[in-house]
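Shift notes (night). Ran N-formylglutamate amidohydrolase while the centrifuge was going.
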Amino acid sequence: MDRLSVQQIISKIENEETFSAVSEDYAFTLKISKYVPYACGAVHDGHQFRKDLWNNCLHSEYDRWYEEDPETKSMVISHPIVIAGCDSRFEYDLNRDPENAVFDTAWGKQLWKNPLPKKEKEKSLQKHTNFYKVVNALIAKLEEKFGVCIVYDMHSYNWQRWDREVPTWNLGTTNIDNERFGVQVETWRQALAGIQLPHGIKQTAKVNDTFQGNGYFLKYITNNFKNTLVLATEIAKVYCDEYKQINYPEVVAAVEKQLQTLLPKHANEFYNTFKE
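Came back to this:
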C-alpha cells in the first residue's frame, strides 16, 4: 500500500491505474485492483482519533467504538474497489454534511470539555473535503467507463439498545430512486436474507426498518451522479459483543466469504439491467 496525496490518488483514478493507497494524512484508504461498475464503501470503519483531541474529549475510547462501525471494511475487503475511513466519526463524520460533520454533542452527551478551537475543526473538515474529492473522482470515472455504477455503502448498528426485534440487515432507501431501482433493492434484500451466520444467529433483512438511508455519503453520490445507485446496507452488530467490546472474527469471516459471491452477482445483474 502506498501513501499518496489526494491529487496523486485522483490522477491514478483518471488514468485508470490499479493501486492500493492510504491518503497522505492517513484519513482513508482506497484500493482499486480492477475497474468494475461497482464499489464498496465503509465510511464508519475508522477508529483513529488524533491525539491533539484526547484531553478535550469527554467520551471514552469505548464510547467511540460503540458508535463506530468496526469490521465493515473487513466484510467487503475482497472486492475490487473499496474506499474506507480510517478516522473515528467522533473526529469528523464522513456520513454527515460538512456543516454537521464535527460534533458538539454525540448521542445525547456533550463531546468536548471546551469548545473545539477553530483550527482543530478546520483540520478535521479538510480531511472530510479530501475524502469527497476522491469519491467524486472515483464515481465520475466509473460512470464514464461503464455508464452506470452501484455502490454498497456498508454500516453496522447497535441492535441491543432497541426495545423491539430488529433485523440482522437493514437497507435504507428513502433517498434513492425507488421507482427506477426498486427491483434491485429487493434482490439485494433477498441476497442478504440468505446469508448463513454461525452460532444460530437469526438471519432477517428488511427495508427502512431501523434506518432510512439518510447518510451524506449516499446523498452526495445520489445528488451528483444520476446513474449510480447507492445501497445503504446495515448489519446489526451480531458480529461482536457491543457491551464488552469483543469482536467475533468467525462471524465477520462468514459475512465476508458469502459476500464474495453474492455482491458481484448482484452488481453484475444491476449492470446488465441498466447499461446502455
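The first helix runs from residue 6 to 14. The domain at 2-274 is CATH 3.40.630.40 (Aminopeptidase).
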